[in-house]
Amino acid sequence: MKYELVCGLETHVELSTKTKIFCGCRSHFGSEPNTNCCPICIGLPGTLPKLNKEVVRYAIMAGLATHCEINLISKMDRKNYVYPDLPKAYQISQYDLPLCKNGYVELESGKKIRINRIHIEEDAGKLVHKGQDVLIDYNRGGVPLIEIVTHPDISSSDEAKEYIEKLQSIMRYIDVSDCKMQEGSMRCDVNISVRHEGETKLGVRTEIKNMNSITFITKAIDYETERQIDAIQSGGEIYQETLRYSEETNSTESMRNKENANDYRYFGEPDLITIKTNKEDLEKYKTQLPEFADGRCKRYVNDYDISKSDAKLLVKYKKVSDFFEKSIKGIDKPKTVSNLILGVIFRYIENESDKQEFNIKVLPEDLNKLVLLMQENKININLAKKALGQMMETGKKVSEVIPDDYLQEISGEEIKEICKKVIKSNDSAVKDYLSGKDKALKFLLGQVMKETKGKADAKFIEKILAGEIKNA
Amino acid sequence: MVDRKAIMNIAKLFMDESETDDVTEQMDNIIQFANEIQNVDVKGSDFDNINGLVNVLRSDEVTNSVDRELILKNANDTKDGYFCIKKSK
Asked: Residue A431 — pLDDT band, cuts 50, 70, 90?
């Protein structure tokens, strides 16, 4: 009997607002411990939280970007639990009236992973375990989060991976979060159950908490799926429990079971009041949504004749895609621009996060100028590549890396003359060519390129050379 | 009857056996009173928004945080700028 995986994800995304959700402390990552704190975010009695306007806007943007309905009336609630990372012993979150609900993220196959809800809440502090000590840093306490909860629509670890990557891309395109999993600004809780294929009832689920790497999420899903199937097949039972995934052993272990599951005693947060969104604002936000990666990718393939794999690379990083779009103004073949970005510029950028930032010395206008020179046949592709490399290294402008005499036009007549000259002085190569050695033509081409300082187009030269040799 | 041990654990109450019967009775009374309150008919009342205000929001502007020394001042134990507690066994 075959089993199938039923998986849902809860994703926490840290919003990149300047300040925390309920106070004006900086929400910056990597500060000295407990230096971005105040009486509000360390939960001193008698303090009053006040909601950050941008948090509401960011969350609504996230909702619109994932096709959610927006609750025009929304409110905050208290979620009670006792743990040292939570100084108030409750987290201010949302319970029955989240800001967004009923959305979806569409996978490449066309399958929609439905989003149940998106709500806003405060992050907890960070615990550092050192020997017998637990050290607490409340800098992260009060940093704004959105929690994006899917329906159990995911049926493989590959789908989970694709969903998370799509979500990352969407959040980055609307610029509400950098979604850096390694820094914890995006974290996932994974809910997993299995059932016989074709069965409609859900099995008992386990939850793996706090995963911050896509690789480990897929490994954990595969491991836990196998574990559950094995347990059922050997006559055992699955218990509803919370699990921790161990990266060292690639296995899951129990953190707590249902018997001592948390009862959060949710109730409306009395210190904060109703959040009301009006339809005019929603319409305004909708117009601020950018064209997303999927749309751009399709357009690059259809309109610009760029291969799908290249288009995907371009749109993977919004700043690269923006750069590309600015660079192609007035260019007949945007594909050339794409090739230069992926083939030359990317060689100078080593890691993913630098590609994400795309802080480079070359401006889109510079690349545009360079490609326009190619388009006007003033320089060829080899020279363009060399020049672009220099520009990336030194930050020099086009006019500084391509000397003036290159930019003077070289006419067809001039090229013809040079070809004639080269044919005259390379007898043996011409003989070789005539006796059927095609390679000899490449040698002659190289000589002409040298003479023209790479200004002429190789195909054009080959045509002239072949013609001249025949006529000679 | 309330689960005495569970409540003492949650509320961090420490007392010896001789006191606990009295306290249990008091707690039972409190819970009974709370149950009575729950029977009050509150249909049509909006307790989440009793003053009718909406959208009291602040703009996303940084205000000064408090010196770490002050933040840590009331902590039982600190280490390297962190609050410090012992791992429970």
From this structure: confident
Tell me the pLDDT tens digit for each residue of A3-62: 999 999 999 999 999 999 999 999 999 999 999 999 999 999 899 999 999 999 999 999
Query: In which band, very low, low, confident or very high, does the pLDDT at A404 lie, cut at 50, 70 and 90?
Result: low
Asked whether the predicted pLDDT for residue A162 surpasses 90, the reply is yes
**Residue from B48, B49, B68, B72 to probe the interface with A (highest A Cβ count within 10 Å):** B48
In this predicted model, which residue has the larger pLDDT, A257 or A238?
A238
Q: Three-class SS of residue A383?
A: helix
The nearest CA of chain A is from the CA of B3 a distance in Å of: 15
Residue A172 has pLDDT above 90, yes or no: yes
What is the signed CA dihedral for A24, A25, A27, A30, rounded to 10 degrees? 160
Question: At a CB cut-off of 8 Å and minimum separation 6, what does A250 contact?
Answer: A219, A223
Please name which of A386, A382, A355, A388 lies closest in space to residue A369, comparing C-alpha atoms: A388
C-alpha separations of A417 from A101, A376, B8 in Å:
72, 21, 101
Residue from the list B10, B61, B87 with its beta carbon closest to the beta carbon of A132:
B87
Partner B contacted by A126 (CB < 8 A):
no
Q: CB contact, 8 Å: A24 with chain B?
A: yes
- Measured in residues, chain A has a length of 472
Instruction: Measure the CA dihedral A112/A200/A251/A14, to 10°.
Output: 40
Q: Dihedrals φ, ψ of A48, to 5°? A: -120, 125
CA closest to B80 among chain A residues: A33
Strand A3-14 to strand A186-196: parallel, antiparallel, or no bridges (unpaired)?
Answer: antiparallel
pTM comes to 0.81
- Burial readout B62-79 (b: 16 or more C-beta within 10 A, e: otherwise): eeebbebeebbeeeeebb
**Radius of gyration over alpha carbons of chain B, in Å?**
22
| H/E segment holding residue A188 | strand A186-196
Q: How far is CA B84 from the centre of its chain?
A: 21
Which H or E run contains A90?
Answer: strand A90-93
Domains (range + CATH), chain A: 3-285 (no CATH), 291-407 (no CATH), 412-471 (1.10.10.410)
Give the whole-angstrom CA distance, residue A293 versus residue B9: 52
Chain centroid offset of residue A347 CA: 19
- B84 and A135 within 8 Å at the Cβ level: the answer is yes
- Annotated domain spans of chain B: 4-42+55-83
Burial class (CB in 10 A: 0-12, 13-18, 19+), A333: middle
Which of A25, A128, A273 lies at the smallest CB-CB distance from B82?
A: A128
Concatenated DSSP letters of A108-158: TTS-EEEEEEEEEEEPP-EEEEETTEEEEETTSTT-EEEEEEE-S-B-SHH
pLDDT tens-digit profile, chain B (89 residues)? 667 778 777 777 787 777 778 888 888 899 899 999 988 888 877 666 667 788 999 999 999 999 999 999 989 899 999 999 998 76
